[in-house]
Design a protein that fits this description.
The structure is a single chain. This protein is mostly helical. It has helices at residues 3-18, 29-37, 57-69, 118-136, 140-153, 158-170, 174-187, 192-205, 208-221, 225-291, 308-312, 315-320, 324-335, 347-360, 365-379, 387-397. Residues 314-353 form the STI1 domain. Residues 293-302, 363-399 have a biased composition (Gly residues).
Length: 417
Amino acid sequence: MDPKQRSMLESFVQLCKHNPAVLHSKELSFFREWIESMGAKIPPAPESTTDKPSQPEEERDEEMKEEAKKEPEPEQEPEEMESEESEESDLDIDKEGCVEPDTDEPQSMGDPSLMVTDEMREQANELRNQGMAAMSEGNLEDAIKLFTEGILKNPKSAPLFFKRASCYVKLKKPNAAIRDSTRAIEINPDSAQPFKWRGRAHELLGNWEESARDLQSAAKLDFDEQVDEWLHQVGPKANKIAEHKRKYERKRKEREERKQKEKLERAQAAREKVRKEQAEKEKRTSGKTRGEMPGGFPGGMPQGAPNLTELLQDPEIMAAFQDQEVMAAFQDVSQNPQNISKYQNNPKVKKVIDKLSAKFGSAGAGAGAGAGAGAGAGAGAGAGAGAGAGAGAGAGASGGPPPSASAGGVFDVPDID
């Protein structure tokens, strides 16, 4: 075999090793069929082959941008394993003496807009005195009726309301007592008595915190031994509830902070996953783009570069690489890209580079010449090889830095995913 043909055949075999997709080109169908007839197994064609036009770079960029814009959906929060702690879960407060809430119809509160005359006021005071006398005798129901009559004549009298409230407390009707006491406080907020009886009513309902607040207000307005006694009973229970609420609130905040932290971590993990998948996809896309063009051009072939079929069908390129002098020049440059300066004035080499530059058009003279020359050199062997020399020479002619070359004289062609 002629040494020149043997060298070109070796280059073609190296190209097939680095880029098996070449074997799926239509021009090499005869070669592929022959290999398969010998029992050889050819790797399946990649998704995007040289027979299929490459996706324009702009479209790929747009797809990548759209995917990058998509906010990664955070994973659904796992079901909270820790059950929500009830506010009363760890409280053990003695409710001895508490009563069930009374549900009677609200008592008459009079008309607050009533114009009270002096005569009406005197009548109301007389009814109040009668009511207090009934209370002292233990006739609480009669006392309530008398106080109610007085309220109807003078609905702006705070004593009538808190006196009736005291009767309701003694009858274990805390809700009625709270209504009367609240009305008395609205009329005269500086009176200690309505706070006293409302505090006692809240104690009967087990509302320890409300009871403590009202009894403390009563004690500030006017010292009362009975108020002080009740406050000593209610105070510890109210403090226990307040401490429990602080503890519960602290735990609630800790749970919320933990949930927010876990949610943030899941969102960050999801974004990182998307980022890695996007980077992997771009890597695969870039690898396929480079794999579609022989020549091993670093960074992939530029947009608009001719494919293998077009280069193999160009008779001038195929003829140029049959020239022993041209092949020797490109082999020399593949070994040492700096040697490109030796051939800048060689008309044969320059003609090949100019031809390849025209093939690549706006993609860049140097890059186009390099990659195209690689394909052309291989075409001389029946498929397309010698890529390294072409890439080196092309880069030099364009004035840019020469791409790297493999020691074997052929650019490494990236594997196809």
